[in-house]
Amino acid sequence: MRVAFLGLGIMGRPMAANLVKAGHDVTVWNRTPGKTVDGARVAASPAEAAGVADVVWICVSDTAAVDSVLFGANGAESALREGMVVVDSSTISPARTREIAEQLAARGVAHLDAPVTGSKIGAEAATLIFIVGGEEATIAKVEPLFQAMGKLYKHMGGHAMGQAAKLALNLQIALIFEGFAEAMALATKLGVEPARLIDLIGSTMIRSGVTDYKAPFVLKRDYSPNFPLRLMHKDIHLALDAAREARVKLPGLETVDEIYEVAHDEGQDDLDYAATLMLLEKWAGVEVGAAAGQ
Ligand code: NAP
User: Fold this and answer.
1) How far is residue 14 CA from its own chain's centroid?
2) What are the φ and ψ backbone dihedral angles of 212, each rounded to 5 degrees?
3) CB within 8 A of 207, min separation 6: which ones?
4) Which atom of ligand 1 is nearest to the CA of 225?
5) 234 included as an active-site residue
6) 165-178 pLDDT, tens per residue?
């Protein structure tokens, strides 16, 4: 299949590479020049990439970035032809997603929102899970591309239901990790060896995918970005905005947002979101990872 892949960040680059590996004809574009994918053509603009493709796949930071690559100067929209499919794997506003799907439908172009879960490791290993909103018939057209980049996809309903479900997932990740981080800070301060607490958590019903994934990084004090804090913060704001529009109260997430505001002020935006633990450590006067090595 001829695919234009727009956005070669932590997620997009390995996703595009897996499309090439699966034998698809891939043209890539990235805002900052210099990022490439072996075996893929490089386009000078989103429009140029879309001009030689049947499917446009987007994976950029946020709602403004998606608007820019589609509708900005030399945006993909100017090169779209009837019958094409646009798939958006960025995590963005559900409300704006619904509008984009309508704008493209007016041009005879189908749209799917297909945000992902699985993080950097899942993108590299082609084990992502796509959380999809849109028409069944459109999904069928691009199914081989989902297979090339992921282990499964879940169809959540019509346009924007993928984005809505993705926000519901990340809301939980933010709260689960915060609970884990607070437990680590408290137990460490009380004298429990962090590695022993993690071992205990692993044997109990408290164990989760989030704690399994993050515990080794926490013990090593490795806060290099798998999922950058700035992007989790963006998702927290997307969830709070959607909640406000739908008149849903999210007191837990509002509190966690305050912690992310402090992390932002402390310059932690480009670290992994697990770095919120560093604030708890500072406030408690204890180092969780360092204590593990004692
Ligand atoms: P990232 O490494 O920060 O990459 C962001 C990409 O978006 C880069 O290619 C960047 O281009 C591009 N971009 C940003 N603003 C732009 C603009 N105004 N116009 C055009 N391009 C722009 O982010 P990522 O981790 O790949 O995440 C991409 C999306 O997937 C986000 O929506 C994120 O929430 C979601 N996601 C991430 C993860 C994860 O674990 N990382 C997991 C699930 C979902 P430049 O190179 O020019 O900056």
Assistant:
1) 13
2) -60, -45
3) 201
4) 41
5) no
6) 999 999 999 999 99
